[in-house]
Amino acid sequence: xxxxxxxxxxxxxxxxxxxxxxxxxxxxxxxxxxxxxxxxxxxxxxxxxxxxxxxxxxxxxxxxxxxxxxxxxxxxxxxxxxxxxxxxxxxxxxxxxxxxxxxxxxxxxxxxxxxxxxxxxxxxxxxxxxxxxxxxxxxxxxxxxxxxxxxxxxxxxxxxxxxxxxxxxxxxxxxxxxxxxxxxxxxxxxxxxxxxxxxxxxxxxxxxxxxxxxxxxxxxxxxxxxxx
Length: 228
Description:
Helix 1 (14-31) packs across helix 2, helix 2 packs antiparallel against helix 3 (60-69) and helix 2 packs across helix 4. A hairpin with a 4-residue loop joins strand 5 and strand 6 (188-190). It is built from seven helices and eight strands, in the order H-E-H-H-H-E-E-H-H-E-E-E-E-H-E. The strands form two sheets. It has a five-stranded mixed beta sheet with strand order 4-7-5-6-8. By secondary structure, the protein is an alpha+beta fold. Among the domains are: 14-115, CATH 3.90.1030.10; 165-219, no CATH class. One of its GO terms (biological process) is translation. One of its GO terms (cellular component) is cytosolic large ribosomal subunit. Residues 122-182 are annotated as: Disordered.
């Protein structure tokens, strides 16, 4: 009896081996992945690769050759209309074998053979994935430049905290046009008429009392428990 050209003989005869591989290929294309022995997975892989290559061609002759091995017409339809189109831009390597360890009972080495994801593993997708992070990394730099003062001064509006407010200048003085002192700890604001105006260290400046009140600050001296 002639021996197979590659790998061990499956089943008791060449006809039985052909039937085993055909059934394995049918299950692989139907479910996308199957678990079997490592020997069967290695013998199935080249057969599955050849069938996917014929499905990529899509001609009538290729379909007839595949139907000699796969008798389920619905699986052949999926192979030619979905799987073949999925690997249209892939030159090869449509399946992957992963070792799973020995099987309980007879200790036979097991493996999982599956169809790889064409979009995730294709060379074009890998190049696109490498370029994408570089573009995203450049975006925060543009945002940082947009937040910088255009005139180069130290004055900076307190963004995200209070509307119509400004932070003290580097020397602690008020920006131009801002006369209302605000204290964030007490949430009080002091006008120039306030007796504590000179003693208060401004943490935030407002132009008008209405701006301070809109930000949630209360005027110092309006309640009994006001402190400096």
